[in-house]
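In response to the reviewer comment on reproducibility (Comment 2.3), we provide here a single inverse folding case reported in full, input and output, so that an independent group could reproduce the run without further information from us. The structure tokens appear first.
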């Protein structure tokens, strides 16, 4: 079931980036490991910059191909799923990363093939 288009993905990117920067503070992440807070905030900043630079209709500079953006998203999803185990996160820190990682991987896996093409 592939229904996520390039346009839908672009609209999701900015709010997700802001959420990755804000939610760790709202939820009080970092109780089991300080990196649990820092990883999300840093990823949110990087995601915001990546979105600004991606070649889609909401990109500002459009220098990064959309396909590369999707690869980065997949790597972030995998990192988020692995981080709790590698870094020994506990409790909410673990759930936050597992849920976000699975969500990112799901969105990337639901892309329509034409959504990955180089056309805007």
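Designed residues, in position order:
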């Amino acid at each position: 079931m592939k229904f996520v288009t390039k346009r839908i993905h672009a609209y999701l990117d900015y709010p997700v980036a802001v959420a990755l920067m804000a939610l760790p503070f709202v939820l009080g992440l970092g109780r089991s490991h300080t990196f649990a807070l820092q990883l999300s905030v840093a990823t949110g900043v990087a995601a915001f910059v990546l979105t600004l630079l991606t070649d889609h209709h909401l990109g500002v500079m459009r220098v990064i191909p959309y396909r590369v953006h999707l690869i980065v998203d997949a790597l972030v999803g995998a990192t988020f799923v692995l981080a709790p185990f590698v870094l020994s996160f506990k409790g909410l820190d673990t759930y936050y990363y597992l849920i976000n990682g699975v969500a990112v991987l799901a969105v990337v896996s639901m892309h329509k093939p034409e959504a990955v093409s180089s056309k805007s």
